[in-house]
Amino acid sequence: MNKTKRACVYVDGFNLFYGVLKGSKHKWLDLEKLCKFYYPKYDIVKINYFTALVKERKDNKESPINQQMYLRALSTLSSFRKTLGSFQENIVRRPLVSKNKKGIRQKVLVSFFDLYDKLMPLADDDNYPKPQYALIKKTEEKGSDVNLGISLVNDAHKDLFDVAIVISNDSDLSGALRIVKNELGKTVEILNPYPKTNKKLQKASSNIKYIFPEVLSELQFLDELTDRIGKFHKPKSW
User: Fold this and answer.
1) In which residue ranges of the chain is pLDDT below 70?
2) Sequence-distant (≥ 6) Cβ neighbours of residue 215 within 8 angstroms
3) How many separate domains does the chain show?
4) Which of 20, 69, 175, 186 has the least C-beta neighbours within 10 A?
């Protein structure tokens, strides 16, 4: 008699969101239902969720509240564990682009050394007829891919699962996946929120499935949930 295989799930929260949830009506996604739908023969032991807390923005002041409500919903799952990374915002200098007559976007020609010249005129410098650079605010989510990779390898080393289910399409995870698959002898399943899988993850995984938007409506939390604090609801904008 075959024993049911133990599976641990590793979710790259932002990769999942931007891959299949952003702009949809299915953000209230129950990850346990999702995993059981795609992997009904596995015993889902743990769902590890890696993300960072978003900040309020002028164009979307509700994002932090909505995210906290979703994390609260996920916390009602007994198998759920979250690990938080962080956001970093930096002002960086980037070269402008232009269009030629054929409409093809091209980088404005600047020398390699000019790229690091802090005295180069900016786009808002009226004294320079052809500005080459602009200052932009660059927001980066830090830590989730590293945290996910470390947890994946550590759990495999401790023999906490037979199968790892990785919900991401981030090629930075390919090294950790190779170790778990080739050196620790575990099965590595990719559940991809994007329609195509990058080549590095293809080589590092045992099998690949895709999240289809059509099935997500059946895999949602109830609109009203209850935890130890009390009742709460799905965000109205969702």
Assistant:
1) 1, 59, 87-88, 97-132, 138-141, 143
2) 37
3) 2
4) 175
Q: Say if residue 221 is in the same domain as residue 109.
A: no
Q: Which residues pair with 81 in a beta bridge?
A: 48
Domain containing 42 equals: 6-85+143-233
Q: Is the domain of 150 the same as that of 72?
A: yes
- Summarize pLDDT for 136-185 with one digit per residue, the tens: 776 666 768 899 999 999 999 999 999 999 999 999 999 999 999 999 99
Which whole-number Å values give the CA distances from 177 to 136, 202, 228, in the listed order?
Answer: 34, 10, 36
Calculate the alpha carbon distances from 227 to 74, 80, 188 in Å: 10, 14, 33
User: Cα 21 from chain centroid?
Assistant: 11
Q: What is the DSSP letter of 181?
A: I
